[in-house]
Amino acid sequence: MNSFKGKVSIITGAASGLGLGIASELSKLGSIVILLDIDNDRLLKAASENMYGPFETKIVDVTNYESIELTFNQIFGKYGHIDYLFNNAGIGGTLPFSEATIKHWNKIINLNMYGVINGMTAIYPIMKKQQSGHIINTSSIGGIIPFSGQALYNTTKYAIAGLSLSLERELKNDNIDISIICPGMVNTRIFYKPIIGNEAPEEYVKIPKEAISVEHAVKDIINGIKRRKKIIITPSILKSFYLRYRLFGKY
Fold first, then answer.
1. Is the dihedral of CA 210, 136, 43, 47 positive or negative?
2. Which are the contacts of 45, defined by CB distance < 8 A and separation ≥ 6?
3. Do 16 and 188 contact (CB within 8 A), yes or no?
C-alpha cells in the first residue's frame, strides 16, 4: 500500500539537501508536496526541477511562529487535511565549545530547536482536529550519540530527540504518530555553511568520504516512515554504534 498517495506533505528546509530529497521522493509516490524554505530563488529552482506531481512552494522563516502558524492554517484550509509534517530546516555547526559565542548559541538554538518547536506547536491543533497525522523531526545521529567536537549541534539535536520521543504516548491519544530522523553524514550543503557567516564556495569544501548520498538517506527515511518507526537511523551501519552506546556508554 502506498502510504503517501494523495496525502498532503509539508517539508521545511526543502530548497536543498535532505529536505529536497524527501520532497522529491514523496512527489514520486503521489503526495501533494508543500515545500517551505527561506531561500526563495533556490526553492523555486529546486522545486521546478525535482517535483513529479502537485506541489506548492512557500517562503517561510521557521523561527517566526506566526508565519508558520498562518502558513499551516492556509494549507489546511485549502486541502482540508495535512498528513505529514517534516520539520527538517536547520544548520550544522562543527565548532569547539571554547570558540562558541552567545551569538553562535542563539543562532543554532533559534533555528534548530525553535524551528521544530514552532512547527510542532502550529501543526498539533490541526492534526488533533483531524485525529490523524505523522510528524517527522530531523534530529541526527549526534542527537542520540554525543560525538565530541559537536557540542552546539548535538545540544539542539538531543533536544529534538528528547522532545519528540517524550511526546509519543501523548500524541497517540490523538492518533498522531511522531518519528525522528537520525542521519549520519550526508552529502548536502550543511558542510558549506557555518553557524554564523556566508556559505563557503564549493571548491573550498571537502565532503567527508563517509558521507552517504541524499538518495541513500531518503530511501532509509521513507522506509522507516512507512513502518512508523520512532527512530530512523541512516545509514544502517550506525545502528550498531547506537546500540553499543546504549549498552556500554561508548561507541
1. positive
2. none
3. yes
Q: What is the mean pLDDT of each run of 10 residues along the chain (251 residues)?
A: 90 97 98 97 95 97 98 98 98 90 97 98 98 98 93 97 97 97 94 82 78 97 97 96 91 76
CA gap 149, 181 in Å, rounded: 21
pLDDT value at residue 1:
56
Please tell me what DSSP assigns to residue 109. I
Helix, strand, coil content of the chain in percent (nearest 5): 50, 15, 35
| DSSP string covering 54-85 | -EEEEE--TT-HHHHHHHHHHHHHHHS---EE
Global pTM? Answer: 0.95
Please state at what angle helix 17-28 crosses helix 40-50, rounded to 10 degrees: 30
Rounded CA gap, 165 and 182, in Å?
A: 13
At residue 8, the pLDDT reads 98
Q: Give the C-alpha separation, 112 to 92, whole Å.
A: 9
The C-alpha atoms of residue 117 and residue 133 are separated, in whole angstroms, by: 17
